[in-house]
Each structure stands twice: as structure tokens, then as C-alpha cells.
Design a protein that fits this description.
This protein is 34% helix and 20% strand. It is an alpha+beta fold and 131 residues long. A five-stranded mixed β-sheet has the order 3-2-4-1-5, sandwiched between helices. β2 (40-44), α2 and β3 (62-67) form a beta-alpha-beta unit.
């Protein structure tokens, strides 16, 4: 039986960014308006990508909310759930983030939700806990 569709933030996109270098945390552009702006949620492609100190990442407006299972790693990547409203209000930041992206997924599409359901569920759980 297929999992029910997730109700994602309007216009949200999942942005996959390479994270093979330990300095990946510092390569992400700072989210405009931090600390007042909503944080961008991040999942790790494998647990070993967790930085020793997450402070710099939080200061830049990102929050790690989980990692791919050690038995089913995605690889040396991080996935960021970017709300449509943030893309609209911060186009320069969005273009800079896209310049670092390896892939961009539209989680509103059924096949993407089926393929990345577990990961998208982590993002949705974190966002629902914020409200």
C-alpha cells in the first residue's frame, strides 16, 4: 500500500547539495533574515556528515533534522527543503544556492514523494513541531 501524500509547504523544493568536503557547512549561503527568518531544514545523505559543531550551520539559518539510514545511505550530499515563499522573497540567495546544487526535486510530484518519502517525512515532522 502506498503511503499517503505529504502536505508540504506551498512551492517547496528539495535541493540536493554535495557535501563530500568537511567544510560543506560553510559553503551554504546564509539564509536572509536569520535569526528572524524560518530555518531551512536539512537532512544528511549519511550520518557521518554530521558536523562536530552545528553552531555555524544554525547561525546561517539551517537546521539538521535527520540523516539517511546507515544501511541505506544516499551519499555525500545534504538535502535542503526550501519553501516557495523563501525562494520568492530571497531570489539572490536562491540563485546562489542553486549554483551549489547537484539536483533539485519537486516534492509535490507523486514519483518524487514515493522515492524520497522517508526523507520528506523527516522534514515535515520537524516543520510540524515548529508550529
Amino acid at each position: 500500500m502506498a503511503a499517503p501524500p505529504l502536505l508540504l509547504p506551498e512551492g517547496a523544493l528539495l535541493v540536493r547539495v554535495p557535501a563530500g568536503d568537511p567544510g560543506w557547512v560553510h559553503q551554504l549561503p546564509a539564509v536572509p533574515g536569520v535569526p528572524e527568518a524560518a530555518e531551512v531544514t536539512v537532512t544528511l545523505g549519511r550520518p557521518e556528515l554530521l558536523p562536530v559543531d552545528t553552531g555555524p550551520l544554525r547561525e546561517r539559518g539551517y537546521r539538521i533534522i535527520g540523516a539517511a539510514s546507515a544501511s541505506l545511505p544516499i551519499g555525500d550530499v545534504v538535502d535542503l527543503l526550501v519553501p516557495g515563499a523563501l525562494r520568492t522573497t530571497a531570489p539572490t540567495w536562491w540563485l546562489e544556492l542553486l549554483g551549489r546544487a547537484e539536483r533539485v526535486f519537486d516534492p509535490g510530484l507523486g514519483p518524487v514523494q514515493r522515492m524520497l518519502h522517508a526523507e520528506l517525512s523527516l522534514h515535515m515532522r520537524a516543520l510540524s513541531e515548529d508550529h
